[in-house]
Amino acid sequence: MEMIDLPPKMRLTTQRQVILEELASVTSHPTANEVYDMVRRRLPRIGLGTVYRNLELMAESGLILKLEVGGTQKRFDATTDLHYHIRCTACGKVDDIKLPVQQEINKMAASATDYQILSHHVEFSGVCGSCGSAAEPSSIN
Amino acid sequence: MEMIDLPPKMRLTTQRQVILEELASVTSHPTANEVYDMVRRRLPRIGLGTVYRNLELMAESGLILKLEVGGTQKRFDATTDLHYHIRCTACGKVDDIKLPVQQEINKMAASATDYQILSHHVEFSGVCGSCGSAAEPSSIN
DNA sequence: GCAGTAAGTAATAAACTTTCTCATTATTAT
DNA sequence: ATAATAATGAGAAAGTTTATTACTTACTGC
User: Would you state the pLDDT for residue A90?
Assistant: First the structure.
């Protein structure tokens, strides 16, 4: 039994504010460690556990998105409206991809499984611009 | 016994055979640790590192699939033809979903990004049958 | 068969990501 | 300002995956 209840008395601490601001300041999808590095420039004494705890809390309350995309680390996204992602197989970078969300795919899925469908996510794999130009300048012949 | 297409110099050891057989014997998508447990019933002295190393090698050679779906652990799949997955948000179980792969989505993506698209994967989130019936008996009341 | 060599294994250590514990600090309501 | 308590920081701990190492096994050409 899982209910989405945001913590009753969630306090607005400096740490939370800065974490959210830093996450919102980038269009990339940083890992917890990367957020930690960004935040530490402004709050040098913050603990890594605090970053993890708050990213998790914010994700639970829907304030941010926790992306469980490929790779070993989870990534976080301050843009909470539904969108798909693409990950570079060479450098691991994750970008948004501006593709309309295919809502009808959920209905198709519902009739193909006994699961109760909640959502779906599409993750593309590809080679990003900088990695592609570095690796294969002769591929368009 | 099926013919296994091994990369040159890759030997078909007992460990590899058993790992592959055990993985192929289930329709679930076990984690490395679960494969380890299954294999250990037949080869009690096998090491966890051996399981990891060989799952990784087999995934690289295309013999099996390594799934980087949600959750903290990677999962492995002996079925290598393209298909989508669905993960239970309650118990973390991952199942195949029999939904035709949307090839055209790659073309749409190609025109929406400067990445060179290689592939895509769709992962659904939902509640599986057993979790659903266990969690919400109040819906029948 | 047998030496020589390459590949694989088991065990262990190590790296890395994430979660947990707890004494202390900071925030909120009074 | 004070009390109540949520949150923090520091470190330990847990969990997953990779790397190292010494030993074993299998393949090669003789």
Answer: 81
Residues of B with CB under 8 A from a CB of A: 68-71, 84, 86, 88-90, 95, 97-99, 102, 105-106, 108-109, 112-129, 132, 135-136
For A129, which of B114, B123, B136 is closest by C-beta distance? B114
pTM over 0.90: no
Indicate the SS3 state at residue B108: helix
> B50 beta carbon < 7 A from strand C?
yes
Among A80, A107, A122, which residue terminates a domain?
Answer: A80
Q: Of A80, A106, A125, which residue sits at a domain end?
A: A80
Cβ pair B134, A116 in contact under 8 A: no
Please give the residue range of the domain that contains residue A23: 9-80
Looking at residue A137, its pLDDT comes to: 45
- Tell me: do B51 and B120 sit in the same domain: no
> How far is it, in rounded angstroms, from Cα B90 to Cα A24?
29
Nearest CA in chain B to A139: B116
The CATH number of the domain where B98 resides is what? 3.30.1490.190
Mean pLDDT by 10 residues, chain B (141 residues): 57 93 94 96 95 95 89 90 89 89 92 94 91 59 36
Q: Give burial (CB, 10 Å; 0-12/13-18/19+) of B51.
A: buried
Same domain (yes/no): B88, B130: yes
Indicate whether B63 and B32 sit together in one domain.
yes
Comparing C-alpha atoms, which of A121, A73, A133, A131 is closest to residue A96?
A: A121
Ranges under pLDDT 70 in chain A: 1-8, 134-141
Cα separation, B47 vs B81, whole angstroms:
29
- pLDDT of B100 reads 92
